[in-house]
Amino acid sequence: MADRAPDPSESICPYCGVGCGIEYEPDTGKATGWKGPVNTRGEICPKGAAAWEIVDHDDRLTQPKVREDGRLVSVSWETAFERIESECSRIVSEAGPDALGFFASSNCTNEENYVLQKLARAIGTNNVDNCARLCHSSTVAAMGDRFGAGAMTNTLEDLREADVYLVAGANPAEQHPIVFRSYLLPSIREGTELIHVDPRTTDTTDAASHHLAVRPGFDIPLCNAMAKVILEEDLVDERFLEARVERVRTFREFLSSVDIDENARLAGIDPDELRAAARTYGEADRAAIFTGMGMSQHHCGTDNVHALLNLALLTGNVGKAGTGVNPLRGQNNVQGAGDIGALPDVLPGYRPVTDADAREAIADAWGFEPPATPGLTEVEMSHEFGDSIHGAVVFGENPAVTEPNANRIRDRLGRLDCLVVLELFHTETAEYADVVLPGSAWAEKGGTVTNTDRQVMRMRPNAEPPGDARRDLSLLCELGDRLTDERFTYESPKAVFDEIRTVLPQYGGMSYAGIGTGSQRWPFPEGASEGVGVLHAEEFANGRRTAELRAVDHVDPVDPASDDELVLTTGRVLQHFNSGALTRRSGTLTRMRGENALQIHPDDADDRGIDDGDTVEVTSDHGNVSIVAEVTPAIRRGTVFATFHFAEPLINRLTGDTLDPVAKIPEYKHTAVRVTVTS
Ligand SMILES: Nc1nc2c(c(=O)[nH]1)N[C@H]1C(S)=C(S)[C@@H](COP(=O)(O)OP(=O)(O)OC[C@H]3O[C@@H](n4cnc5c(=O)[nH]c(N)nc54)[C@H](O)[C@@H]3O)O[C@H]1N2
Ligand SMILES: Nc1nc2c(c(=O)[nH]1)N[C@H]1C(S)=C(S)[C@@H](COP(=O)(O)OP(=O)(O)OC[C@H]3O[C@@H](n4cnc5c(=O)[nH]c(N)nc54)[C@H](O)[C@@H]3O)O[C@H]1N2
Ligand code: SF4
Ligand SMILES: [Mo]
Q1: What is the average per-residue pLDDT within 38-50?
Q2: Does the model's pTM come out above 0.90?
Q3: Is the CB of 101 under 6 A from ligand 3?
Q4: For a 10 Å CB count at each end of the chain, is N or C smaller?
Q5: Three-state SS for 249?
């Protein structure tokens, strides 16, 4: 892209972590793709092509609102800010700064999130998190622990070189469409084999040569059995083990107790199919793992990823092109929201808040020291609403739809003394707000976002926010100025980025000019000429030459299904995005069959007298919903699937409170339910 003249309207898609270049054309009101660093031919998916609709939508919030006598009424900015100031200062003086909680936004820029986490810490709390907690916190925990960095080990570009893709618990054909179509599929057409581990047959499975339709929650026995096949059939990379891996003997001992047939049975897979897939992965010269929510969103999410990491280490598939372990990140800036420190336990650059040197270093830049006690994670904060947390600021998230056990979450949202919501639309969460601040959509803001393969790219405004709505960054800076003793007077997003560079060593060598209409990839320390593509090549990101193999035991689901119950797992479809706040309002995204239905296997449907199109009642220990049944062999027997994109039926009324003990990620992928026909 270096030879292109910078064009001020080039921005980045507001949806997924692929980070395609799109631009808004005010004259026509449409959005088109430009030749971005990822979508190098300007190609975009249906959501990107429909992203213009949210910019000039009739439902956009155009005025600040505050709650008076139970109703939200439009007010001036001054009145809205005064309400926030008086409520927050009352809460802090009565109950201390930890009585406030801040939800950052992985749909928003690095600069905006940086300001939000800094203002929380200036008030004196580390209660700040973003919804990376709900996607890949378990992956980040496992990979951070073993490899020293939680991000994609490789780049989309070099992953074209793989001979085998092992895609576990992800559906890139629908969730990362341009990665799938422009990177994976062309390689697959040229002979790269795809192993797909997913209880459902999806568009991704259509390109696979092996499909392991695992029982939800049983990926650990599957991975352990694959590891055993690799060992038994001499497919381990002895030279790599010798040079780069520790605890090899202990791991071999652990595998000696693994029974391949027994594990395959537990995972619900034919042992021969499992063996064949393990061979394909193990024999490849270069094999790359992609992982997603099917692995990460479990009570054992961190262990699931540990079990995957073992496969990569055993076969020497780390530190070179076309290999590695690659978590496909969620929103357009979920990677960056973590990098810049919108997390309760770490400061910008993943330095622990408990590390006195890290606090001191950042105090030099900030002029104040952040608190030393880790804050609460997102769901932990929600569970404290009305108890230890009295006030919350929710920036660009819709937890009333997306957090698990929605009945409990909604009850908790209602118990806050003061809920401030920064939004584009009047969402289900805004229903509970005491103050609603109208912010800016993607085409109305400047700043940077960091995509799934660590590329930092620039967004540029090409429209003004509607009515009295304001740019998110200016809004957050004013909040900082009003709620703290610090100064949040930044002239522009660039001024914030220049500060980020000084406190975040991974971004130290970057600049707005250097990024231009291309990208810069972290790690890019100050003084370097460019960022690093393939991580862990000579040493791991933690500076160590070696990583360890780790024995991982299967743990049964916390909520096992009894004989008359089924296991509900949840996820996504191509045309909708997360809580649906944006995509449900689209007039151009075509409705898909099954987008708002319960997938159920024909045999399970038969047992219950359910026909395709019937309305069924789904009940868990936490709640119940009515939903239309889609009878299909695309889902394995004993399992049902629904998306969580709709407020009606609200699928998260069914999911429960269990969190992974390490990463605190919710169990979204395994809930025991009863399904009965109602019509
Ligand atoms: N179209 C679209 N794209 C999106 C999003 C969206 O909402 N819509 N959201 C973005 C975000 S925030 C994220 S985090 C990513 C998520 O992207 P993905 O990780 O692809 O998302 P999911 O559909 O939640 O889950 C992936 C697959 O896991 C499978 N699965 C369920 N349970 C299990 C299990 O126990 N084991 C295994 N191995 N697989 C299982 C499901 O059947 C599903 O096909 O997508 C991003 N991109
Ligand atoms: N059952 C089940 N539940 C799940 C999951 C699952 O797989 N199954 N997945 C989980 C995952 S991985 C995730 S990431 C979460 C997602 O959960 P959320 O982040 O709550 O979902 P979104 O719909 O992305 O919410 C983004 C909100 O920000 C607003 N917004 C968008 N852009 C901007 C902007 O530029 N400025 C401002 N001010 N606001 C903006 C939108 O209007 C929208 O309301 O859902 C989680 N919930
Ligand atoms: S693949 Fe993702 S980033 Fe690209 S256009 Fe589609 S939703 Fe946007
Ligand atoms: Mo996500």
Answers
A1: 97
A2: yes
A3: no
A4: C
A5: helix
